[in-house]
Design goal:
The structure holds 2 protein chains of 2 kinds. Chain A has one domain: MetI-like fold, CATH 1.10.3720. In chain A, 73% of the residues lie in helices and 1% in strands. Chain A is flat. Chain B is an alpha+beta fold. Chain B folds into 2 domains: 226 residues, 3-Layer(aba) Sandwich (Rossmann fold); 88 residues, OB fold (Dihydrolipoamide Acetyltransferase, E2P), CATH 2.40.50.140. In chain B, 25% of the residues lie in helices and 31% in strands. Chain B contains 8 helices and 18 strands. In chain B, helix 2 crosses helix 3 and helix 2 packs parallel to helix 4. Classes of the chains: A mainly alpha, B alpha+beta. Chains A and B meet through helix 9 and helix 10 of A and strand 6 and helix 2 of B.
Amino acid sequence: MATQNTRKLARAMLTPSVVILFVWMIVPLVLTLWYSFQSYNLLNPVNNGWAGFSNYYYFLTDPSFTEAFVNTLVLTISVLAITVIGGIFLALLLDQHIVGQGIVRILVISPFFIMPTVAALVWKNMLMDPNYGIFAWLATRLGFAPIAWLQDYPLFSIILIVAWQWLPFATLIIFTALQSLDEERKEAASMDGAGAINLFFYIVLPHLARAITVVILIETIFLLGVFAEILVTTGGGPGFASTNIAYLVYHQALLDYDVGGASAGGVVAVILANIVAFFLVRIVGKNLDA
Amino acid sequence: MGKIVLEGVEKTFGAIKVIQNVNLTVDDGSFVVFVGPSGCGKSTLLRLIAGLEDVTAGKILIDGVDVVNTPPAKRGLSMVFQSYALYPHMSVRSNIGFGLKMAGRPKAEIDRKVEAAAATLNLTPYLDRRPRALSGGQRQRVAIGRAIVREPKAFLFDEPLSNLDAALRVQMRIEIARLQDTLGTTAIYVTHDQVEAMTMADKIVVLSAGRIEQVGSPLELYNKPDNLFVAGFIGSPKMNFIPGAAAGDPGAATIGIRPEHIAASRDSGTWSGTVTVAEHVGSDTFLYINAGPLGDLTVRSVGEMGVKPGDRIFMTPEPGRIHRFDPAGHAIVAAH
Ligand SMILES: Nc1ncnc2c1ncn2[C@@H]1O[C@H](COP(=O)(O)OP(=O)(O)OP(=O)(O)O)[C@@H](O)[C@H]1O
Ligand SMILES: [Mg+2]
C-alpha cells in the first residue's frame, strides 16, 4: 500500500464489504438501542412506551451487574493468560524434533474442532462430576475427598473449560510464527553467546510478538461473549458466581422476559467491549504495524 | 591469536559423507578462502569450525585446544552469515552490541566498542535505525560490525557478498580485505566466486565433494594446479584440456593450457581451427574455436580482434605454460 494508486484501488475494492458489514452491524444495533429505551416486558405487555434511562439505571445498579462485570474480566484475562503462556510452551515443544510429530500436532489441535456445548458437556459429565467424573476418581484414588468443581469453583471450572478450548488456537498461531523464525538468526544469537533463556527472551519472544497480539485480539472478541459453556454447565450459578455479562443479558431477556432491560444490557456490553478493544489496541496493537 | 587446525575432520548427514578426512592449518592472522562448486561442503566445513554442527570424526584445534565439544559461543569465533541474520526488532546499536551484552560486559564498554565499530564501518548515522530501514550493503556492514566488536580469534564468513550487486560486491570485498588486514584477525571466507577467492586470499582451499583438492596461494593454484579439477576450477574462462596424443605429447593423458596463454593469429601457428563464436568485451576478445582433433578451444586475446564466426584461425601455445596430467588426472610435475 505504498503509492497513491494502490491506495485508491484498495479503497475501491474494500467499499462493498465495508458497506455490507456496516448495514449488517447497524440494523441490530439500532434496534437494540431503540428497545433499550422502551418499557418492553413480555410478562407485562400493557406497560409499554418510552422508558427513558430507567432500563440502564436498573441494569447498572443491579448488584448482579457488578458481579457479572468482574466475572467477565476475570474469565477473559485468565483464559488469555493461560492460552498465551500455555500456547507458547506447547509451540516450543511442538517445534522440537520428536517421533510421531505429525500425530502429536493433530492431537494438540483437535479440541478446537469440538463444539463449545459438547466440550462443556464432556468436561461437566466425564471430568468434573463429583460422583463419576475422572477427577473425582483420581481424587479418591489418591485419598482425597472428591471436589464438586462446578458447585464449589464455578468460575474457575469455566475458565478451565474455555482455556482448554482456546489453547489449540493459540498454540497453532504461535507455532506457525515460531516456524517462520530464521534458523540462521538463532545460530547468530548462539554464536553471540545467547543461551537457551536469553535466546527465548531476546530472539524468539520478540519474533512471536505479532502472533501473540493476533491471538490476544481474536480471543478477546470471543471471550467477552462466552455463553454456551456457562449455559450447559453452571447456568451462571450458584447465584451469579459464574455469570458474565453476555449470560446476564440472556438471563434478563429469556428468564425474566425483560426485553427492554436486556437491550440496555446489550448496549452496555457493546460499550464495555469497545472500551476493552480501545485499550487492547493501544497496548498490544502497535505490534501489528511492526 | 587465532590459529585453527583441522585434523581428520569428517561429517556425515545420515548415510552421506559430506566432509571427508579434511586436514588443514589456518595460520594466525591469515585470510583463508574456501572455494568449490555448489554443494561441495564449504558451508558445512565452516559450520563445523563454528560449532553449529557436530563433527562425526576428527579434531578441531583453536590455538592448540581441541574444541569439538565446546559450544559455539565459547570458541571465540564470530560468523557473518549469507542472510546477514540480523535481529530485526533491535536497533543497529543493539544488534552490534548483542554479543557483548550476552557476555555481561558493562554498558559503558559496550557503547564505546559499538561506536568504534560503527565508525570503522561508516555506520554511525544509522545506529538507531532498525535493520529493515537499511540498504543491503549497510545490513552487510552491520553483520560485520557484530562480528568485529567481540574481538574474536577468527572471523568466519559464509558467502557474505552474494546478495549484493556487482559494484557493491567489489567495494565490500576491498573493505573486508582491508579491515581484516588492519585488525590482523584470522579469517575464513567461503565463496564460490573465484574472483573473490583470488583477490582476497592469502591461501585458497579448493574443495570438491567434501575433500580438499589443493591448498595454496592464489598464484600457486593458478600456475601449478595439482590436478584436473583445480586446473579447471581456477581461472576464467576455464583452462582448455586437450588429449595428450592429439596435441603431440603422448607422455601425458591430458594437457591443459589457459585461454590467455594461447596466441591467436590469422596467418600462422602450431594449431589451427575455425572460429565458432567471437565475444568482444572491449578490453579482450574471447574466441571459441573448433580445432578438429584437439576439440573445442577457448582463446583470449587482448584488445579488439576483427574476427567473425567461420574465419580460419591459427593458434600458438605459450611455451612453459602447458600443464600435463596423467590418466588419473594428477599433474605430472617434472614438466617443461
Ligand atoms: N542438514 C543437512 N542434512 C543433510 N544433508 C545436508 C545438510 N546440510 C548440508 N547437506 C548436504 O551437504 C552437502 C554440502 O552442503 P553445503 O551447504 O556445505 O554446500 P556448499 O558447498 O556450501 O554449497 P553452496 O555453494 O551451494 O552454498 C550438500 O550435498 C548438502 O545437500
Ligand atoms: Mg553454502
